[in-house]
Structure formats: structure tokens, C-alpha cells
Design a protein that fits this description.
Helix content: 25-40%
CATH topology: Rossmann fold
Radius of gyration: 14 Å
Shape: globular
Distance between the termini: 22 Å
Strand order of the largest sheet: 1-2-3
Structural class: alpha/beta
CATH architecture: 3-Layer(aba) Sandwich
């Protein structure tokens, strides 16, 4: 992902990996939530991109709520997510009218946000 964003002409201020178990219900997404909060508070971060497998439903809701409350654009690409859960909320999902050979829609959307500013 980081290489592809670089190839599209943009850069990254932070990259955080949370591990495969973090989004399970019993863990509650603690690391992802802390990471989102840190990036929201980071003045160098202009757009957040979240890419992961589908979280447990209560964790997914926490993450959507936190992202929706952010003043920064948030691009979410949860594999297998349900779009109707976030309709009419201030979120951009990794599902776009563009088609890419390598599933780059979330990354290209991040670059598009950056180019608009």
C-alpha cells in the first residue's frame, strides 16, 4: 500500500499495523482505535486510510463512529463490509466507481483527497 501511494505521487506521514486479532470482539479494536485517535491528532496527517479484514460488528461500529466524528477525511476499506451501515455518514469507503487491477481504490481516493486541497 505504501509503495502504491508513493507511485501515485503522494507520501505518508505514519503507517500503523495493529495485528490480526485486534479487531476481534474480545480485544475491541484497542490498537486501531488508539491509532486512529493518534492520527486524528497528528497535524501532519491530512487523510486517514484504514485497510483491514472485517472487524467484529461492535468493533466496526466503534471505528465508524470515531471516523465519522473526525474533522479529517477517512477512507475505509474493510474487506466484506456492509455499505448500508455507513450511508449518509461522513465516511468514504473503499468501494468506488473506479475499477483498478490491483484493488487500489482506497489508495487512489486518498491521493484524490490530497490533490483537492
Amino acid at each position: 500500500m505504501t509503495v502504491r501511494i508513493h507511485q501515485l505521487g503522494e507520501g505518508l506521514s505514519q503507517v500503523i499495523g495493529t495485528g490480526g486479532r485486534d479487531l476481534k470482539e474480545e480485544i475491541g479494536g484497542l490498537m486501531m482505535i488508539q491509532g486512529i485517535q493518534a492520527l486524528i491528532g497528528d497535524p501532519e496527517t491530512e487523510v486517514l486510510v484504514l485497510v483491514s479484514k472485517l472487524p467484529a460488528p461492535p468493533v466496526e461500529k466503534k471505528i465508524y463512529d470515531l471516523a465519522a466524528a473526525s474533522q479529517k477525511p477517512v477512507v475505509i476499506a474493510f474487506i466484506g463490509g456492509e455499505i448500508d451501515k455507513v450511508l449518509n455518514k461522513r465516511l468514504i469507503l473503499g468501494t468506488f466507481p473506479w475499477k483498478f487491477q490491483y484493488g487500489e481504490s482506497a489508495f487512489c481516493r486518498c491521493v484524490a483527497f490530497e490533490e483537492v486541497d
